[in-house]
From TrEMBL:
Coiled coil: none
Source organism phylogeny: Eukaryota, Fungi, Dikarya, Ascomycota, Pezizomycotina
Keyword hit for Isomerase: yes
Organism: Podospora anserina (strain S / ATCC MYA-4624 / DSM 980 / FGSC 10383)
InterPro entries to which the protein is assigned, alphabetical: Aldolase_TIM, TIM_sf, TrioseP_Isoase_bac/euk, Triosephosphate_isomerase, Triosephosphate_isomerase_AS
HAMAP family (UniProt xref): TIM_B
Keywords: Gluconeogenesis, Glycolysis, Isomerase
Subunit structure: Homodimer.
Protein name: Triosephosphate isomerase
Length: 249
């Protein structure tokens, strides 16, 4: 089946009230490919500003993270219901920067399941370190992360999942996996989904590439059969984000 191209913008811990408004104004006024689904993720502090500012019909707003438990005595956390109360329909889970801070595969899976049960769709991140790649363990690492996720999900839950493969060694480093390296891992993810979940989930699930994506390399990456879009970091803060969104034309 034809999978709808998807481009996410992870602003990370960047921005001010005015700069977030300016980025969104640029998106609202740009000629975006109408066949591409766009989701931007400012920090929690600026989510209400972003929700109010977005007018482009193909652009939605996401959180960068969410807590696995409902409202209660969890200082500093944000619940699924609070994100829904703001009007959000998306969250990111399992970004490598959070995994590096101590989030386990199981913790990420718990967050993902809680988000889906609460009505959110999820950009679920996976990926390997440079040491793991050099040891030839890339696919094994990603499959372990996938297995922890699959253990928590039912069949219908997968309809709310977008997978983002992000080689950790390529995030914010200026290094990027070659088109062949990226396609190889994306194909392995789809093969795992087919073997361990179902043919339908393997065919329908969108798999994004993330890791120093720019306007310069996005067109070649977009041509790969198992790359269904991008999760963009630093470049999502720049005008070239529009070019990345339109890279599948």
């Amino acid at each position: 089946m034809a999978r709808k191209f998807f481009v996410g913008g992870n602003f990370k811990m960047n921005g001010t009230k005015e700069s977030i408004k300016a980025i969104i104004k640029n998106l609202n006024e740009a000629q975006l490919d109408p066949s591409v689904e766009v989701v931007i993720a400012p920090s929690h502090l600026y989510l209400p500003i972003a929700v109010d500012a977005v007018t482009a019909s193909t652009v939605s707003v996401s959180a960068q993270n969410v807590y696995a438990k409902p409202n209660g005595a969890h200082t500093g956390e944000v619940s699924v219901s609070q994100l829904k109360d703001l009007g959000l329909n998306w969250t990111i889970t399992g970004h490598s920067e959070r995994r590096a801070g101590g989030e386990s595969d199981e913790n990420v899976a718990d967050k993902t399941k809680a988000a889906i049960d609460g009505g959110l769709s999820v950009i679920w991140c996976c990926g390997e370190s440079l040491e793991e790649r050099e040891a030839g363990n890339t696919v094994a690492v990603v499959e372990k992360q996938l297995a922890a996720l699959a253990a928590k999900l039912s069949g219908d839950d997968w309809k709310k999942i977008v997978i983002a493969y992000e080689p950790i060694w390529a995030i914010g480093t200026g290094k990027v996996a070659t088109t062949e390296q990226a396609q190889e891992v994306h194909a392995a993810i789809r093969k795992w989904l087919k073997a361990k979940v179902s043919d339908a989930v393997a065919d329908e699930t969108r798999i994004l590439y993330g890791g120093s994506v720019t306007a310069k390399n996005s067109k070649d990456l977009a041509k790969q059969p198992d790359i269904d879009g991008f999760l963009v970091g630093g470049a999502s803060l720049k005008p070239e984000f529009v070019d990345i969104i339109n890279s599948n034309q």
